[in-house]
């Protein structure tokens, strides 16, 4: 069975957001489907998703995992699900409204109509489009992307962005079992691999708004993984066949 659009949202303690974000996606034109991958949230996020499944039985899907296994592994599990079930366009986004659900339509249209293989919702393609972040975090994120550009040579301004649309063939071509990172470095590694494989990539501007409900999952360990991981990834690429 050929299906079209699947939005993947990993969750951990997103009870305050999951219903609203799910309904916002369901309200979009184009019959977007949603896959929530929940890492056994103690706040009952998965139970709320099960309630939503009764309202949208064909369009909302749930994978509940045994524990907190990391952002990257959640997305990889979602990618395998999407490929196994025939979806043509696969999206990544956060549960906390930092990504505007309406921008999913723009990501899709750019990917479909302009024939791109990966479309990135970028905070930095037209300056710095971030709302409600402390200046320290804005600077850290901005210069992290500059650092990634410098080390890797990737022509991508928002290297750590987590709001994306992949064309099916892109994910089929990437050897997902060889993706190594599980934190925010996962986002960099996926873009780097897509770029090295020669796929067509485009960034479109979005406004990123910091969450108003729930707690951020960012921490210093995740940041260090990204910083050191980029160097490891670049060195490994000298010996790796893509």
Descriptive terms for the model:
seven-stranded mixed beta sheet, transferase, globular, alpha/beta, two-stranded parallel sheet, 242 residues, 43% helix, Nucleotide-diphossugar_trans, Spore Coat Polysaccharide Biosynthesis Protein SpsA, Chain A, 8 helices, glycosyltransferase, Dolichol-phosphate mannosyltransferase
Q: How would you explain this protein's 3D organization?
A:
Helix content is 43%, strand content 18%. It is an alpha/beta fold. It has one domain (3-237): Spore Coat Polysaccharide Biosynthesis Protein SpsA, Chain A, CATH 3.90.550.10. A seven-stranded mixed β-sheet has the order 3-2-1-4-7-5-8, with helices on both faces. The protein starts with a strand and ends in a 5-residue tail after the last helix. The model has no long low-confidence stretch (mean pLDDT 89).
What's the quick description here?
The chain has 242 residues and is α/β, with parallel strands linked by helices. The protein is 43% helix and 18% strand. It has one domain: Spore Coat Polysaccharide Biosynthesis Protein SpsA, Chain A, CATH 3.90.550.
Terminal-residue CA separation: 30 Å
| Average of per-residue pLDDT values | 89
Spatial arrangement of strands, main beta sheet: 3-2-1-4-7-5-8
Low-confidence stretches: none
Topology:
Elements lengths: L2 E9 L3 H12 L6 E6 L6 H11 L4 E5 L6 H14 L2 E6 L10 H11 L4 E5 L7 E2 L3 H18 L11 E4 H6 L10 H13 L4 E5 L2 E2 L10 H18 L5
Parallel strand pairs: 1-2, 1-4, 2-3, 5-8, 6-9
Antiparallel strand pairs: 4-7, 5-7
Helix pairs in contact: 1-2, 5-8, 7-8
